[in-house]
Specification:
It is a single chain. With about 250 residues, this protein is mainly alpha-helical. The protein is built from nine helices and two strands, in the order αααααααββαα. The longest helix has about 35 residues. The protein is globular and about 60 Å long.
Length: about 250
């Protein structure tokens, strides 16, 4: 069996995924807390204020990583949803649905911090421009995935319907990303990209630290939710009973 097939097979095994999550979760939380504390201290205390926006620019250290995660989590949710629909891997369904609440929280945080940042920058908390509106649509898509999964009496049917909606909603991600280039919008273009950054290193490094911290938070939260769901769904299995006995 090739390495890829073996990993794919292990990923689809609830006992293996449960044990892997139990091993990884403490390390992920530790990395999240360490990098988050370092990034917040650097961004909120040590980094200089912006020469135009002043101290209000410090909202960037929460807003930008949250916006990145809102889109990244949705893309990952759609990938796992695709695996669940094509190969009928229950673990992929569990991970896709466990991603939705975390992604919705990051999207809401991006919208709230963006509104707070917009007040001193634009003079208003909200404008119906393309970037903000498409980000709001992303929040509704997350809520739709969660609601659709809970709307069916049969969990597998609800999960498949939610995964299908996640795939359909992928069309919104390019609208969010390219909205500042396709339409006239108040939102500034991306300052960090594959071609480089227009942000000074003293402000860029804490931003990247916060971006890493949010990724570790997502992974830790995701595996925690996945582990709990696996126990609930397989509570009558022998490996769950053995784990309960071991933890007593």
């Amino acid at each position: 069996m090739s390495t890829v097939k073996r990993i794919f097979h292990q990923f689809g095994s609830p006992p293996w995924l449960f044990r892997f999550a139990g091993f990884a979760i403490p390390w992920l939380w530790a990395a999240c807390l360490g990098l988050g504390a370092w990034g917040l201290w650097w961004g909120l205390v040590k980094a200089p204020p912006d020469y135009l926006q002043g101290e209000s620019v410090r909202i960037m250290y929460l807003h930008v990583p949250s916006a990145w995660m809102s889109m990244g989590i949705y893309a990952g949710m759609a990938v796992f949803g695709f695996c669940a629909l094509v190969w009928r891997v229950r673990a992929a369904e569990v991970i896709a649905l466990a991603s939705a609440p975390v992604g919705a929280a990051f999207t809401l945080l991006a919208l709230v911090t963006g509104s707070l940042w917009g007040r001193p920058t634009w003079g208003t908390y909200w404008v119906w421009d393309a970037r903000l509106t498409s980000e709001l649509v992303l929040l509704f898509l997350y809520l739709g995935v969660m609601g659709l999964a809970a709307a069916f009496d049969e969990p597998r049917k609800g999960a498949r319907a939610a995964c299908l909606l996640a795939l359909v909603g992928l069309v919104n991600l390019p609208l969010i990303h390219y909205s500042v280039e396709w339409w006239n919008t108040l939102h500034q273009p991306a300052s960090v990209g594959v071609e480089g950054s227009s942000i000074h290193p003293s402000m860029l490094w804490p931003l990247l630290l916060m971006a890493l911290a949010t990724k570790f938070y997502y992974l830790a939260n995701l595996l925690t939710r996945t582990r709990l769901q696996l126990v609930v769904e397989n509570r009558k299995s022998r490996w769950v009973r053995d784990w309960v006995l071991e933890t007593r």
